[in-house]
């Protein structure tokens, strides 16, 4: 549910459906918005948990119900990418696919579009290749995965040498100093046959299930099959299942103002600040002798703060969070404590 964004992000309304930046658009809507002019709306396939079907349709009325694949249970990113690939192959056996997470922030839209076009062009020229976006790190971030570049292809593309998931601070500092490592954006490009064949080779426990459903794709029986058998898939990420094993993976080095909007601190870092350094996305705030805070409240509520410096203040109708920005990694612990004391009432 994105507990680091609690109390805004809840099980019933995860972070991708929330307008964190005060733009009037959720992170999901912004993701679809920036694909305009690159991918026709009818070619977009949404994959989400079944409990969020109505939210997706409400926020994206241009996406038809048959473009939304509904997971009955959560099984991480390898099974969902597999289902999407087999489903898309039934629609277009020559498809080239872009995987775009719905909870990221991208500030430079034109640079993003140029990077996407380059990735698709690379796939056309290099069959059986997989491309991922790599972002040059500017700090030893421990919350991101890292890609080490190997042999250079040209000024934009390099062969991937290694993937590393969320290193500790010491290793992240080493990565930063070498200049060989990039943040793993989680955006991927591949031909439909490329990813299906990679699944068959490196994750047969996943591919076997979807191969058995070939007669159902594009029919009412597809969802019935998924509802019955999806739970049999292992809970594994696409990085572990395929990316770390496949031989022809390339990183496109990009610079389009990317952030995995995963914490209140990342909202602060990537949002416009007033003269006191405060971030107040879509919130009415009167701040006195208060600096470098992120203050968010739902609805038309007025928030008044005094003498507050370097804090997160996040208010919803049933929960209020006040915590130093430097302690935001503890928010997960606070959410667990809330569950221990009050069950799922505030989750």
What low-confidence regions span 5 or more consecutive residues with pLDDT below 50?
Answer: none
Rg (C-alpha, Å): 21 Å
Number of contiguous helices: 11
Q: Give the number of DSSP strands.
A: 15
Instruction: Tell me the β content.
Output: 15-25%
Major β-sheet strand ordering: 5-8-6-7-9
Mean pLDDT: 94
Shape: globular
Give me the secondary-structure category: alpha/beta
Q: Write the element-wise H/E pattern from the N-terminal end onward.
A: HEHEHEEHEEEHEHHHHEEHEEEEEH
Share in helix: 25-40%
Q: Distance between the terminal alpha carbons, to the nearest Å?
A: 9 Å
Oligomer: single chain
**Largest sheet descriptor:** 5 strands, mixed, barrel
Task: Give an overview in words.
The protein is α/β, with parallel strands linked by helices and 347 residues long. The chain has helices at 27-33, 53-59, 77-91, 109-125, 169-178, 192-202, 204-211, 221-229, 238-243, 264-269, 331-342, and strands at residues 46-49, 68-71, 96-99, 104-106, 130-135, 146-152, 157-164, 181-191, 249-254, 258-260, 284-288, 294-297, 302-306, 311-316, 319-324. Helix 3 (77-91) runs parallel beside helix 7 (204-211). It is globular and about 60 Å long. 34% of the residues are buried. The mean pLDDT is 94.
Short description:
The protein has 347 residues and is of the alpha/beta class.
Notable characteristics:
347 residues; alpha/beta; five-stranded mixed barrel; three-stranded mixed sheet; 24% strand
Can you lay out the helices and strands and say which pair or pack?
Layout: H1 27-33, E1 46-49, H2 53-59, E2 68-71, H3 77-91, E3 96-99, E4 104-106, H4 109-125, E5 130-135, E6 146-152, E7 157-164, H5 169-178, E8 181-191, H6 192-202, H7 204-211, H8 221-229, H9 238-243, E9 249-254, E10 258-260, H10 264-269, E11 284-288, E12 294-297, E13 302-306, E14 311-316, E15 319-324, H11 331-342
Parallel strand pairs: 1-2, 5-9, 11-13, 12-14
Antiparallel strand pairs: 3-8, 4-10, 5-8, 6-7, 6-8, 7-9, 14-15
Helix pairs in contact: 3-6, 3-7, 6-7
């Amino acid at each position: 549910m994105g507990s680091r964004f609690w109390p805004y992000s809840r099980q019933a309304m995860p972070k991708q459906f929330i307008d964190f930046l005060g733009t009037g658009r959720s992170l999901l809507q912004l993701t679809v918005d920036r694909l305009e002019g690159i991918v026709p709306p009818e070619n977009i396939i949404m994959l989400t948990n079944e409990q969020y079907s109505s939210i997706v349709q409400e926020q994206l009325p241009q996406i038809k119900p048959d473009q939304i694949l509904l997971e009955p249970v959560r099984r991480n990113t390898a099974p969902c990418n597999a289902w999407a690939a087999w489903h898309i192959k039934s629609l277009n056996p020559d498809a080239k696919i872009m995987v775009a997470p719905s909870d990221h922030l991208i500030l430079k839209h034109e640079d993003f579009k140029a990077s996407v076009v380059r990735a698709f062009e690379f796939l056309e020229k290099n069959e059986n290749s997989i491309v991922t976006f790599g972002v040059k790190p500017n700090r030893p971030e421990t919350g991101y995965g890292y890609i080490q570049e190997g042999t250079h292809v040209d000024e934009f593309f390099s062969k991937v040498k290694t993937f590393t998931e969320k290193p500790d601070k010491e290793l992240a500092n080493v990565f930063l100093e070498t200049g060989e490592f990039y943040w793993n954006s989680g955006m991927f490009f591949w031909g439909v046959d490329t990813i299906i064949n990679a699944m068959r080779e490196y994750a047969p426990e996943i591919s076997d299930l979807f191969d058995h459903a070939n007669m159902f794709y594009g029919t009412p029986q597809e969802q019935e099959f998924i509802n019955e058998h999806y739970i049999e898939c292992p809970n594994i990420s696409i990085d572990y299942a395929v990316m770390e094993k496949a031989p022809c993976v390339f990183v496109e080095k990009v610079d389009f103002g990317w952030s995995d909007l995963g914490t209140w601190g990342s909202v602060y870092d990537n949002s416009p600040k007033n003269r006191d350094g405060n971030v107040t996305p879509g919130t009415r705030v009167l701040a006195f002798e208060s600096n470098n805070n992120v203050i968010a409240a739902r609805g038309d509520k007025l928030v008044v703060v005094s003498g507050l410096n370097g804090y997160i203040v996040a208010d919803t109708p049933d929960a209020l969070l006040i915590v130093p920005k430097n302690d935001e990694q503890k928010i997960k612990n606070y959410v667990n404590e809330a569950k221990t004391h009050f069950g799922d009432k505030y989750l």
